[in-house]
Amino acid sequence: MRLLNLDGRLQVSTPSGLVDVAAASRGHFSGSPQEVYDRWEEFVAWYEKNKSVLAPTDTGDIDPARLGAPSPRPLQVFAVGLNYADHAAESGVARPEAPVIFTKFASAISGPVTTVPLPAGSVDWEVELVVVIGRGGRDIPTSDAWNAVAGLSVGQDLSERRRQMSGPLPQFSLAKSHRGFAPIGPALVTIDELDDPDDLELGATINGEVVQRGRTSQMIFSVPELVSHLSETVELCPGDVLFTGTPAGVGVGRTPPRFLGSGDVLRSYVDGIGELVQTFTSSDQARPV
User: Fold this and answer.
1) Which of 15, 247, 252, 286 could cross-link 84 (Cys pair, CB 3.0–4.6 Å)?
2) What is the pLDDT of residues 125-139, one digit of tens each?
3) Distance separating alpha carbons of residues 198 and 219, to the nearest angstrom
4) pLDDT value of position 169
């Protein structure tokens, strides 16, 4: 199943077109993309039972700029640092022995095609596989962790490096939460749609130049391990978002360092899920994301 947030309404993307969930269920399920996660297992069961008879309400091409994040206002947003060995190496640090967890604030979340104003400082890119929690819970064993996941999406962990490393201690969460710094999309894809959800290619280009390429099988800590690890401390809630880390190729790891500038177009993808497109402008030129 591929879920879309189109103009703020929950849609299922099918080969024949889009199915508006609220209309197709006659109001049994809300049209709110966020609310579906509170009834995730019930929703999946309803869709599997009825998918052969659901009639699309929109069969035309969709402007990706109309799409929002598949989980636009999660209760919690987690992120993982240094989860690829090659990224840890380019950062000059040792391979972590346990997941390195921080957060991005939910107000940074946007849809997949946006214009992002550049704050003062040095803005960097980090393509990531994003996990959205379905069932959630506490103390989830690794062997059962995929069952707690609603689906996967593409994300960018945009980061302002000067603020991130300022002060006596790093300011990871604040530096990674400027307006538009957490684009997610274009769809939420359930794992049954993917040949191997543990081994997906991901990458990014800037103005057509490849800057990142890797595979999620290269993660130090897999999706099930991350979900289980987090649930040992916190309760994972339906709709929570998890950025799972980035492979090598970020700007701060280059010699000399390279950062995003006004006019740059950043494209980020995960095979089988889709693509994000961010266009960067100086703050006085930007329109809201």
Assistant:
1) 247
2) 999 999 999 999 999
3) 9
4) 81
Walk across the sheet containing 201-206 and list its strands: 113-118, 274-282, 265-270, 201-206, 209-215
- pTM, full prediction: 0.96
Residue 186: asked if its preceding bond is cis (omega within 30°), the reply is: yes
Give the span between the Cα atoms of 246 and 83, in whole angstroms. Answer: 7
Burial track 214-241 (b if 16+ CB lie within 10 A, e otherwise):
bbbebbbbbbbbbbbbbbeeeebebbbb
CB atoms under 10 Å from CB of 138, counted, come to 11
Mean pLDDT, range 250-273, rounded to an integer: 98
Report angle CA 287, 59, 277 to the nearest 5 degrees: 30
Rounded CA-CA distance 39/35 in Å is 7
Between CA 174 and CA 18 the distance in angstroms is: 37
Amino acid at residue number 122: S
The answer to whether 260 and 251 are in contact (CB under 8 A) is: yes
C-beta atoms surrounding 283 within 10 Å: 13
Classify strands 127-133 and 241-243 as parallel, antiparallel or unpaired: antiparallel
The Cα–Cα gap between 15 and 43 comes to 20
Alpha-carbon distances, residue 170 vs 47, 175, 220, 247 (angstroms): 45, 9, 22, 21
